[in-house]
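Dear colleague,

Thank you for sharing your sequence with our group. We've completed the structure prediction you requested, and as agreed, I am returning the results in plain text so they can be pasted directly into your records. Please verify that the sequence below matches your submission; if there's any discrepancy, let me know and we will rerun it promptly.
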Amino acid sequence: MEIKMTEKQFRRLLDLVYIGNWILNSTRGDDRIRQYDEVESLVFSQCLAHGMAPLTELYQGQLIPSQAFAEGGIHEAIMAYEDTIFFEILAQELALRDMDDPPITEENYDEVMNRMNAYLGEFEAHGTDHISVDME
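Please find the predicted structure tokens below.
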């Protein structure tokens, strides 16, 4: 297979591949999905032919994203996504809890969204500062 793209598009593809593999494998420990590691390695190996060698390094016989790549801002994008998802899931869980955990239906969708938006407003203003858990 051959895909034609500009250098800028290829650089963005590197970000997408890294983020995708991070999501799939970063929490798996030794149980990584090796096929995704292999695809990441294959894509990053193309850096050598495109003047982007500093974005890759050799590790255990495979080319992987380099420390310079990983420290170049990509984790800030991942963390921003994780923060957003954390607060959205927390808002949804709290909204549903407040409603005695019903499934979301057409009939209660607006109420769920209103409650979620109230929680999201609170989180935007105060983060988790006003959250407490009774550990009895």
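Summary note from our side: The mean pLDDT is 95.

Kind regards,
the structure core
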